[in-house]
Amino acid sequence: MSAIDCIITAAGLSSRMGQWKMMLPW
Predict the structure, then answer these.
(1) Taking the CB of residue 17, how many other CB atoms lie within 10 A of it?
(2) Which residues contact 13 (CB under 8 A, 6 or more apart)?
(3) Are 13 and 20 in contact (CB under 8 A)?
(4) pLDDT (tens digit per residue) in 6-18
(5) Shortest CA distance to 11 belongs to which of 25, 24, 19, 22?
(6) How far apart are CA 5 and CA 24, in angstroms?
(7) How far is CA 12 from CA 4, 7, 9, in A?
(8) Any idea what DSSP says for residue 4?
(9) What UniProt keywords apply to this chain's record, in alphabetical order (predicted)?
(10) What is the number of domains present in the chain?
(11) Percentages helix, strand, coil for the chain, rounded to the nearest 5?
């Protein structure tokens, strides 16, 4: 994986985590 791929993957994971946090009731 190149640095750009790592950045894109990290950004995707962070955005998904943000959605999960918003979905959690607590």
Answers:
(1) 10
(2) none
(3) no
(4) 888 888 887 877 7
(5) 19
(6) 29
(7) 12, 9, 5
(8) H
(9) Nucleotidyltransferase, Transferase
(10) 1
(11) 80, 0, 20
- d(CA 17, CA 26) in angstroms, rounded, equals 14
Q: Please give the residue range of the domain that contains residue 24.
A: 1-26
**Pair of tokens at residue 24:** 């959690």
**Torsion angle in degrees (nearest 10) through CA of 12, 17, 19, 21:** -170
Report d(CA 10, CA 16) in Å as an integer.
Answer: 10
Q: Measure Cα distances from 24 to 1, 9, 12, 18, 20 in Å.
A: 32, 22, 18, 10, 6
